[in-house]
Design goal:
This protein is of the alpha/beta class. The chain folds into two domains: about 10-75 and about 110-185 and about 280-350, FAD/NAD(P)-binding domain; about 75-105 and about 190-280 and about 365-395, D-Amino Acid Oxidase, subunit A, domain 2 (D-Amino Acid Oxidase, Chain A, domain 2, 2-Layer Sandwich), CATH 3.30.9. The protein has helices spanning about 20-30, 45-50, 60-65, 70-75, 95-100, 110-125, 245-255, 310-325, 335-360, 370-385, 385-395; strands spanning about 10, 15, 35-40, 55, 80, 85, 90-95, 105, 125-130, 135-140, 145-150, 155-160, 165, 185-200, 210-215, 220-225, 230-235, 270-285, 285-290, 290-295, 300. The chain has an eight-stranded mixed β-sheet. It has a six-stranded mixed β-sheet with strand order 9-3-2-13-20-19, covered by helices on one side. It has a four-stranded mixed β-sheet with strand order 1-12-11-10, with no helix packed on it. A hairpin with a 5-residue loop joins strand 15 (about 210-215) and strand 16 (about 220-225). Helix 9 crosses helix 10. The radius of gyration is 22 Å and the shape is globular. Bound molecules: flavin-adenine dinucleotide. Flavin-adenine dinucleotide binds near residues 53, 306 and 307.
Length: about 400
């Protein structure tokens, strides 16, 4: 490795990536007075605006609150207690709040990331380097790993010596690639479908999440804020967003989300329109030497059941607490158990996403057998209290043990 840094810098932990996972770990470390450096390839303004998730589970919000990270969220987020399936021209409301007394929080990811950056940089005086380039991880199997990167202001290579590296750089980062292939197994699943992910500058058209199960394909409606709504439309994988004009989008949304007596959808300009190829992966184990992967870097779950950011936060809580305990002189038990503990929840959520995917997409598969079993799954939710309770537990992520 070559660097032209005058003196290599030392810090206990380098965190690669300023998404929900990396920033949460950084905040936990700073609260424990542990120094760390967050390296991020994008600018602060960019990460604070990047639209993605919105649905956060109660345990995750409690976890943020316990660590002093949920002030704005609790003041501004909405509570959601129901979802509605629309199929066969009918509406089936599933009130999981009534069933369980539990709820989801809806708080757009850019607002959460903005809160986490502010707390880390401006309140807890954390060191974050934005817009860095060419991040490389070194000597991960030794007790003295390091991370190098190009400084955006000077163009010089810098080197950070550390004790631990947190790879929280998402699905397209470099950390996962630093694990030697013989050390890990990557399990992948491809759904063979695409989703056109849309953000509309329009108020939500329902007080709850809507799932349209339609022969043309799945459609989803999810509130993000009083002014903005996320919609999804199933489409062929690799489809070009330009194939979807404003009129075509709204006409498909109206058709796929129709239901007896439902008020019409409120239309608005489409401010985001991109195609997601729906796939999942899981890296096992999530660690290698002194590198600990967290969030999407370790496992991607297609946004079918709104689980990805929740898993990223779970990893961050477990890892942040374990690193803080170890660096405060504790034993390494938390770090040793990190991967196994997180992977149990990851696999549970993957399985639920796969189950729900069949509900969403089975009727549009052109296969009468799959259409029949899809409708059986849906009917069971509304006829069997045991099936309803199991669905609510998985949808809310409230199982007592994973
Ligand atoms: P990221 O948020 O991807 O953060 C990684 C960071 O690392 C980024 O800032 C990136 O710029 C940076 N980075 C990348 N490469 C490098 C590098 N080489 N060096 C340094 N930094 C790097 N999840 C839910 O729980 N609920 C939802 O409702 C939901 N809806 C979604 C809707 C959509 C359309 C999508 C795409 C995703 C959705 N998700 C949802 C998933 C959720 O957004 C992700 O799981 C979450 O962002 C993962 O957080 P993370 O911190 O692991 O990774």
């Amino acid at each position: 490795m070559t660097t032209n840094s005058p003196a290599p810098h030392r810090t206990p932990v380098v965190i690669v990536g300023a998404g929900p996972a990396g920033l949460t770990v950084g905040n936990i470390l700073r609260a424990a007075s542990v120094d760390c450096v967050v390296l991020e390839t994008e600018s602060r303004e960019f990460v604070e605006k990047r639209p993605r998730a919105g649905v956060i589970e109660e345990w995750a919000v409690r976890g943020l609150e316990r660590r002093g990270l949920a002030g704005n969220l609790l003041a501004r987020a909405q509570r959601h207690t129901a979802c509605e399936f629309r199929f066969g021209g009918e509406r089936y409301r599933f009130s999981y709040g009534d069933l369980t007394g539990r709820h989801h929080w809806v708080y757009p990811q850019p607002l959460l990331v903005t809160d986490l950056v502010h707390e880390y940089v401006d309140v807890r005086a954390g060191d974050a380097r934005f817009s860095v380039r060419d991040v490389e991880l070194h000597d991960l199997e030794s007790a003295h790993p390091s991370v190098s990167f190009t400084c955006p202001e000077t163009g010089e290579r810098r080197l950070l010596h550390c004790e631990f590296v947190v790879g929280a750089d998402g699905a397209r980062g470099v950390s996962r690639g630093a694990l030697p292939p013989e050390h890990l197994r990557i399990a992948r699943h491809d759904y063979g479908i695409g989703w056109l992910a849309l953000l509309a500058e329009a108020p939500p058209s329902s007080d709850c999440v809507l799932f349209g199960v339609h022969p043309n394909g799945f459609a989803g409606h999810m509130a993000r804020s009083p002014e903005v709504t996320r919609y999804y439309l199933q489409c062929p994988p690799g489809d070009d967003p330009d194939n979807w004009s404003h009129d075509r989008v709204w006409s498909e949304l109206h058709a796929r989300l129709s239901g007896a007596g439902a008020p019409p959808l409120t239309e608005g300009p489409l401010i985001e329109k991109r195609v997601l190829d729906m796939h999942d992966y899981v890296v096992e184990p999530m660690t290698y030497g002194r590198l600990f992967l967290a969030g999407d870097a370790a496992h991607l779950v297609a946004p079918i059941a709104a689980k990805g950011m929740n898993l990223a936060l779970h990893d961050a809580f477990v890892l942040g607490d374990a690193l803080a305990a170890y660096l405060d002189g504790g034993d390494g038990a938390g770090l040793d158990g990190y991967s196994d503990l997180c992977l149990r929840r990851v696999w549970d959520y993957q399985e639920f996403s796969q189950w729900l995917s069949e509900v969403y997409h089975g009727t549009a598969a052109g296969d009468p057998f799959r259409a029949g079993t899809t409708f059986a799954r849906l009917r069971r939710l509304f006829t069997s209290p045991a099936a309803a309770a199991a669905f609510a537990e998985q949808y809310l992520g409230t199982a007592e043990h994973y």
